[in-house]
Design brief:
The protein has 219 residues and is α+β, with helices and mostly antiparallel strands. It contains 7 helices and 8 strands. It has one domain: 3-Layer(aba) Sandwich (L-fuculose-1-phosphate Aldolase), CATH 3.40.225. Strands 4-3-2-1-5-8-7-6 form an 8-stranded mixed sheet, sandwiched between helices. A hairpin with a 3-residue loop joins strand 7 and strand 8. Helix 4 runs parallel beside helix 7. The chain is globular and about 50 Å long.
């Protein structure tokens, strides 16, 4: 397949991820951004565009050092670049605003991670999901608050803002965001029904051992 055709396919895949995020209620209006690696370029959604309506032809392109090659890239591109810089396996990054996940960071600002010990699926699929400190959107600080959490974690809540997930392809990056919001909702419902209860410690330890064997990918 010619290189132009490969790039166009990837641009269509980015649009598909944007539309899926919007359909799931994890993006509103011009919120969020999605990027993917194509050869020596980083393709990224344009600034100020509704992700439900963005077109493949609108994709911007950057170098790994942040030089704009074409288009009008997202103002939050520094966060994407920080992920690619620190995570050698990263080929795609998704930044969205999943409501329940954000709500946990607002309601419980002291939390350092989503309560993972209550759910076997969460441990097996992601391990832990940390909550990064608040950083003003569009600033270099959005990348710096991630430094201590990368590359170990592939799904991270951004305090009072949103979440970011990265993967070895777009599907993994999208799955991380979907997994996060699904877990955040289950935990929210458990809290509303009474309380969040942890699995026994022996079971938690066993699940984390299984997670190690499964590898680093988000499931």
């Amino acid at each position: 397949m010619a290189q132009n055709a490969i790039r166009e396919t990837l641009e269509h895949e980015i649009v598909d991820v944007c539309q899926r995020l919007h359909t799931k209620g994890m993006l509103a209006a011009a919120d969020g951004n999605v990027s993917a690696v194509f050869e020596n370029e980083i393709l990224i959604t344009p600034t100020g565009r509704s992700k439900a309506r963005v077109a493949p032809s609108e994709m911007a392109a950057l170098t790994r050092t942040g030089e704009i090659l074409r288009g009008s890239p997202s103002g939050e591109r520094l966060m994407h670049l920080a992920v690619y810089r620190q995570c050698a396996k990263a080929k795609a990054v998704v930044h969205a605003h999943p409501p329940a996940a954000i709500a946990w960071s607002i309601a419980y600002p002291e939390l350092l991670e989503l309560p993972a010990h209550a759910m076997s699926e969460l441990i097996l699929a992601t391990g832990r999901i940390p909550i990064a400190p608040y950083a003003r959107p569009g600033t270099a600080e959005m990348g710096s608050v991630l430094e201590s959490l990368l590359p170990k974690h592939r799904v991270i809540i951004l305090g009072r803002h949103g979440a970011i997930s990265w993967g070895e392809d777009l599907e993994e990056a999208y799955n991380g965001m979907e997994r996060l919001e699904h877990a955040a909702l289950i935990l929210k419902y458990a809290k509303e029904l009474g309380q969040i209860t942890d699995l026994p410690k022996t079971e938690i330890d066993a699940l984390f051992e299984i997670r190690k064997k499964l590898g680093d990918r988000t499931l």
